[in-house]
Amino acid sequence: MYKDKSVSVIIPCFNEENQIASVIKTIPAFVDKIVVIDDNSKDKTLEILKKLQTSNDKIILIENKKNQGVGGSMASGYKWSRDNNIDLAVRMDGDGQMDPAHLPLLLDPVTSGEVDYTKTNRLLSGNAFNKIPFSRYFGNAILSMLTKIASGYWHIADSQSGYTAINKKALRLINWDKMYKKYGQPNDLLVLLNIYNLKVRDIYTEPLYDIGENSKLSIPRVIFAIPFLLFRRFLYRLKEKYIIRDFHPLVFFYASGFLLLLLSIPLLVRFIYFWISVDNIPKINFLAWMLCVIIGIQFILFAMWFDMESNKDLK
Description:
- The chain is an alpha/beta fold.
- It has 12 helices and 7 strands.
- It has helices at 20-25, 45-55, 69-83, 103-111, 128-131, 134-151, 168-173, 185-195, 219-222, 225-244, 250-277, 283-310; strands at 7-13, 33-38, 59-63, 88-91, 117-121, 164-167, 200-204.
- α2 (45-55) links the parallel β2 and β3.
């Protein structure tokens, strides 16, 4: 128990034989249940977990007979925590990159009722640029900006951080079967939380790298998948939050802005065609293109501003 609240730590595992034992051994004593999901590992992860379970009655082992991805594994852990009336559910990965000493920092704002969900933010650390591999730092920064737009949590960064804590209210509101099952799970969850107007806060921590972890993340595999996921989820959030559950005129601004930018594409093609083939600049065409681009961008910026104002209290 932590401040009279039951706590579960959810650990999704796939081929973590080198780190999983040390991760479990360093989990603080106040944690009530350690929910470990073996995602059909091909190494000795499952064997190690079963051995640890015999000497630690806090361990709840869930075996995926088929690989579900990190999101699918997290959904299983969240559903177990929900069904067993857990007050606070924490996610920690099995690679040792999440310092158990930071657990109270994550839990305190959720325990006090200030927010519904906390996550670590490693990007604002003074050492982040030096500690995080450049490709991951740059990619994380880009995805964080896209996630701000998609999720509506404009105050949140380091969207790829999976070190999180969530309360019972959120556990019961979210439909975990609809959560994205792969590496975009943290981004997708932020979108789902925003639909229900749940409060989210960043907790600043130092990044941990080069501690023997074996990253499964393939940058080429996610570089297009996550942005496409965020675009789909952005549209889903607009529909669910600003049309179905409530109404806000920002949807008209977004729709008009995107429509004008789409209209600007054939106008630009026509303008370039006449410029190259006839050596003539059609003035009306050029003016129409400029107006579509300028007004379209203005509409989108206004929509973002409205969205920011609508969500400014969710922190």
